[in-house]
Design goal:
Number of domains: 2
Shape: elongated
Radius of gyration: 19 Å
Strand order of the largest sheet: 5-6-7-8-9-10-11-12
Strand content: 35-45%
Distance between the termini: 45 Å
């Protein structure tokens, strides 16, 4: 595939999404900083953006995430290759982000918003207002548990947590339903880099559970899998980071 054809295809993706970004020179939203929440949530991206000598020195670099409020826990960062322009690097980041988002499948059972990728950082400058960016991690979440008839019930929504699971000793989280109504709250307690314990309380104490969790990385997306029991001794499974349909396929059998 020729470079000209590739860039034309990427441009079509961007136009289809309606997400042309400003250039760094056009932006008035300030410079990105190493300790900004977006970099704290994605240490691998932070390492490439701020520390890796090859990518840090790239002529152009862009970061794209799903919006609004980073509605799915993923990102795409792209750095200058050969003689690519800033706009071309933005297009590449946006295309890569959309590809990751499409791989996850529909998000409608978790969110009542239209989740689309958008370039947020270009050449070290924010190209969207900072108030549009989340100060917490947002991820699709699903909770599976047996109902009174023994069937698998599913609670879909969005998990929010401010600290870093696996890095901070204790991380509190909350789960909202697709109408953005709070339904659950809980805590992850870190026992190691990728595992620990959890507690969960839903519907003002009408449903609760506890158990252990593990962090999974890679395809189809980084996610947290927690397994435990309710107060009545029934199994409960929590999946954070995957859309509900994908979570159901992978873990919904309890």
């Amino acid at each position: 595939m020729s470079r000209k054809f590739l860039l034309a295809a990427l441009g079509l993706v961007v136009l289809t999404a309606g997400a042309w970004a400003q250039t760094a020179a056009q932006s008035s939203y300030g410079r990105a900083e190493r300790r900004d929440p977006i970099f704290l949530r994605f240490p691998e991206m932070a390492q490439r953006f701020w520390e890796n000598t090859e990518t840090m020195a790239a002529s152009h670099k862009s970061v794209a995430v799903p919006m609004p409020k980073q509605c799915s826990f993923l990102y795409a960062d792209t750095y200058t290759r050969n003689q690519m322009s800033e706009r071309e690097v933005q297009q590449m980041a946006l295309s890569n982000c959309n590809a990751k988002l499409n791989q996850l499948g529909p998000l409608g059972e978790n969110y009542a918003v239209n989740c689309q990728c958008q370039v947020i950082i270009s050449d070290g400058a924010y190209v969207v207002p900072r108030e549009m960016l989340p100060d917490q991690a947002y991820s699709p979440a699903s909770i599976f548990y047996p109902d009174d008839r023994g069937n698998v019930a599913r609670l879909n929504g969005t998990a929010r947590y401010g600290a870093l699971v696996g890095r901070d000793r204790s991380v509190t989280f909350s789960v909202d339903n697709p109408r953005s109504e709070p339904v659950c709250e809980g805590t992850f307690t870190n026992d190691g880099p990728r595992s620990g314990r959890f507690s969960l309380n839903c519907f003002s104490g009408k449903f609760a559970g506890s158990g252990t969790y593990e962090s999974h990385t890679g395809s189809p997306n980084d996610h947290i899998l927690a397994r435990g029991q309710t107060g009545r001794g029934q199994p409960v499974v929590i999946v954070i980071g995957l859309p509900s349909q994908l979570a159901m396929t992978m873990y919904g059998g309890l």
